[in-house]
């Protein structure tokens, strides 16, 4: 089966459902997957006055999907199945994010920048891939990792996970020329998944407090220093020994925490497809 726009749009629309306005959804008021902001911009580009997105008609909806999502990802140039997978991701999380998943999933087959732009270099790299099933799986692995790195995962995770699983089955079926399973709407799968809702990296405060200059380490060091001259007194000697051990434990704990926090930050950076300087803190 050759997916292309009509078939891909039909599947996406099932996953997007009808009207929604969940307080935790960064997309806000949305109809058929089109947010109020996107609809306002579209109406303005057509020289029309803004109106509630709930009043959008099917012609406007289809034009928005084709011009603002399908064309930017160059859907007509992508292999069947892959076109739908990228399209669905672009609608749910934005074009740039969806393209980054593809660029990362291509691995060594793509030697360009991970910039979120579906340029000719990215298109050619996709077209050169022989195993479309494997590429679809890798793209959706990246997508799922991104979704799990959002604060809103705890609210929408079940729906998003279901959506990704369905997109994988449908995309791989279409890539092999099969009709594939029909998409099914599940609650919360339509919530927008944007980078703005990314989890924050663990703070380094506890490690700093335990390792040089922190309040905790400073207090222990000062107490040890003040008691040291009195170590000829038995209970003071024991106290100094205890403080010394406590200082070592706190220092090692701080070291372990710093290692853990750096690892978590790296994992978050990878899941969000961000350079280290851009990880939310």
Note down, in words, how this protein is organized.
- With 281 residues, the chain is mostly helical.
- The protein is built from 11 helices and 3 strands, in the order αβββαααααααααα.
- Strands 1-2-3 form a 3-stranded antiparallel beta sheet.
- The longest helix has 38 residues, at 234-271.
Q: Return the domain count.
A: 2
Uncertain segments: none
Under the CATH scheme, which architecture of the largest domain would be assigned?
Up-down Bundle
Distance between the termini: 45 Å
Q: Report the order of strands and helices.
A: HEEEHHHHHHHHHH
Shape by Cα distribution? elongated
Please indicate the percent range of residues in DSSP E strands (runs of 2 or more): under 5%
With strands numbered from the N-terminus, the spatial order across the biggest sheet is: 1-2-3
Using the coordinates above, name the CATH class of the largest domain: Mainly Alpha
CATH superfamily of the largest domain: Chitosanase, subunit A, domain 1
* Helix proportion: 55-70%
Helix count equals 11
Largest sheet: 3 strands, antiparallel
Category by helix and strand content: mainly alpha
CATH topology of the largest domain: Chitosanase, subunit A, domain 1
Rg, alpha carbons: 26 Å
Give the number of DSSP strands.
Answer: 3
Structure keywords:
3 strands; mainly alpha; 11 helices; 2 domains; 281 residues; single chain; Chitosanase, subunit A, domain 1
Please outline the helices and strands.
Layout: H1 4-16, E1 19-20, E2 30-31, E3 34-35, H2 36-45, H3 58-70, H4 82-93, H5 95-105, H6 120-127, H7 132-148, H8 153-175, H9 205-210, H10 215-227, H11 234-271
Antiparallel strand pairs: 1-2, 2-3
Helix pairs in contact: 1-4, 4-5, 4-7, 4-8, 5-7, 7-8, 10-11
